Amino acid sequence: MIFDSTENLDLYFDAMPELESVAEFLSNIPADAKGRIDIDGNDLYVNLSEYDTKPRNDGKYEFHQKYIDVQIILEGQEEIDVSHDTNLELTMPYDEKGDAGLCARGPQAAAATLRMTPGRFVVLFPQDLHQPCIAVNDTPSKVRKAVFKILF
Fold first, then answer.
1. pTM recorded for the entire structure
2. Is the dihedral of CA 119, 18, 112, 144 positive or negative?
3. Rounded to an integer, what distance in angstroms lies between the CA atom of residue 71 and that of residue 37?
4. Which of 37, 66, 87, 113 is a good FRET partner for 106, with 20 to 30 A between their CA atoms?
């Protein structure tokens, strides 16, 4: 996992060259863009969405095997819990087509809770179980978000 400011994206270009395309897309993002937008076909694309955050206990951890997530809040704020607990109860088996599986929240606290606001980004690798869309201070709010998918 990498958690940093979008001002520092260029520091990671050598390790993850795809982040250069992410930075370029962010600098030219249309205000009304929604849904999936291909940047480099299935190797790199972005999902733009708007939603209301929800209470932490209403969510589940998700995981991916084929794609790395780069999540960036464009408007609003949320928290993302990250876990590396491999003993969590599987509630939705991994679906290869959708590249996602779900696990129940366990009794342990998350390994990290990230406060996501505009200007911050997180890179989540396949080993990073993550629960996005969590309401800050249990107060639901509207969020506009970009989730870039980089083929692993």
1. 0.95
2. positive
3. 15
4. 66
Q: What are 69's two structure tokens?
A: 């997530």
User: Could you give the CA distance from residue 68 to residue 50 in angstroms, rounded to a whole number?
Assistant: 20
Q: Which residues of 51-75 are buried (b: 16+ CB within 10 A; e: fewer)?
A: eebeebeebebbbbeebbbbbbbbe
Q: What are phi and psi of 21, to 5 degrees?
A: -70, -35
For residue 69, list its beta bridge partners.
124, 149
pLDDT tens, position by position, 54-70 = 999 999 999 999 999 99
Distance of CA 148 to the CA centre of its chain: 8
**106 Cβ neighbours under 8 A, 6+ residues apart:** 83, 85, 87, 88, 89
Sequence ranges of the domains in the chain: 2-151
| Cβ 53 vs Cβ 78: under 8 Å | yes
137: helix, strand or coil: helix
Round to whole Å and give the CA distance between 65 and 74. 25
Estimate the share of the chain in helix, then strand, then coil, as percent rounded to the nearest 5. Answer: 15, 50, 35
Domain 2-151: give its CATH code: 2.60.120.370
